[in-house]
Write a structure and sequence with these properties.
By secondary structure, the chain is of the alpha/beta class. It is built from 11 helices and 14 strands. β2, α2 and β3 form a beta-alpha-beta unit.
């Protein structure tokens, strides 16, 4: 029996989510909702479902709804997530929320707390590691081919430069920390997926002169040094179209360990693995071990959406313990705790900051965990 789904917020991301649900056998898209009537009507007609203009009306009309997929936006791409998520959770519905979970850390903490209280699933669309490249990289780790992790290097952003820069006057994104809140959720989620919780954060953030000259408030360039709980050190560089990224393309994640190193390029496109030297082997300057390369042939980043949404549908269908939900609200909260530590570090002139600890996982005694 497919899960009945309603999607709230029908701009570009919401339309993508609707398409994913409508083509997935685990889901039955039954309703769409947007405060802009035309948007709701157009998507309802496209998918042959009912249109609503208030979430309350959708919930009242579909008491058997299983999942509410929240794709609203707002300031810093996240200020309209809290209210619909809390309303859906209050109705006992499972929720998949777009990233960031919220642009307000207090709201995000409350969303995670309330979902645990209601004993329903709260997931977030942290889709950058629902890829064949990330899965293969994790397999290298699980099989012992990376060994003890030593360092992680991550860079992600948008290709650009001063000639393609366009100043956005919209107060919804012309905010100092908009890029951090809206976008750093992705790299931090991947970094945590591979190396675990982050315990220390230090940042230097800035913007180029061509932004400053336009009065752009956005701190578009973020240089972040981190330490993980397992003592791995890491570095994240992100910018929003301020330059062209070189090797690795717009997205690259390199994890180096005592037994091998891997690097993912362009998120879903390519994975390279280099084994560490064995006893008796040595590599001088200019020489290196022969790598293993996985080239997926996938060029479209959009292919991550159906993969991630399918994972949420699988977890809900299978009734996994809530603490085993992939890309959960708690996972999304972790990324925001790191982002707000970045903001605190920036505001203190580059001071090292300890992110706030995540809520303790208690587990449900009525569920036999694996």
């Amino acid at each position: 029996m497919p899960l009945k789904v309603g999607v709230v917020g029908l701009r570009g991301i919401g339309q993508t989510h609707c398409q994913c649900h409508s083509t997935n056998p685990l889901a039955q898209l039954v309703a769409v909702c947007d405060v802009i009537k035309q948007r709701a009507d157009e998507m309802a007609a496209k998918h042959k479902v009912k249109a609503y203009y208030r979430l309350k009306d959708m919930l009242d009309a579909h008491p058997d709804l299983d999942i509410v997929d929240v794709c609203t936006g707002g300031y810093e791409n996240g200020s309209w997530h809290f209210e619909p998520t809390m309303e859906a959770l209050s109705a006992g519905k499972h929720v998949l929320c777009e990233k960031p979970l919220s642009n307000d850390i207090g709201e995000a903490r409350e969303m995670v707390r309330f979902a645990a209280e209601k004993k329903v699933y709260l997931g977030c669309n942290l889709n950058h590691y629902f890829t064949p490249t990330a899965e293969r990289a994790k397999k290298y780790m699980d099989e012992g081919n990376i060994g003890e992790t030593v360092n992680l290097l991550f860079k992600v952003g948008f290709h650009g430069g001063e000639e393609t820069y366009g100043f956005s006057k919209s107060p919804r994104f012309n905010q100092p920390y908009a890029h951090m809140k809206a976008f750093l959720t992705h790299p931090f989620s991947v970094m945590r997926y591979f190396c675990g919780d982050i315990t220390h954060v230090q940042t230097f953030s800035t913007k180029p002169g061509f932004r400053k000259n336009k009065g752009d408030l956005l701190l578009s360039v973020n240089s972040v040094h981190v330490r993980f709980a397992n003592d791995t050190v890491g570095y994240l560089l992100s910018h929003r179209g301020d330059a062209v990224f070189g090797l690795g393309g717009w997205w690259s994640c390199e994890v180096a360990g005592s037994r091998g190193t891997f690097c993912i390029e362009n998120c879903i496109e390519k994975l390279t693995y280099w084994p560490a030297p064995k006893k008796g082997e040595g590599y001088g300057l200019g020489s290196a071990p022969k790598p293993e390369v996985l080239d997926t042939g996938i060029k479209d980043f959009g292919d991550t959406f159906p993969r991630r949404i399918n994972a949420f549908l699988e977890d809900v269908t299978n009734g996994v313990p809530r603490e085993h939900l992939r890309s959960s609200g708690r996972d999304a909260l972790a990324t925001l705790e790191y982002i707000f530590a970045v903001i605190e570090s920036y505001e203190s002139g580059g001071k090292m900051v300890r992110p706030k600890a995540l809520p303790t996982i208690h587990g449900d005694p009525s569920v036999e965990n694996i």
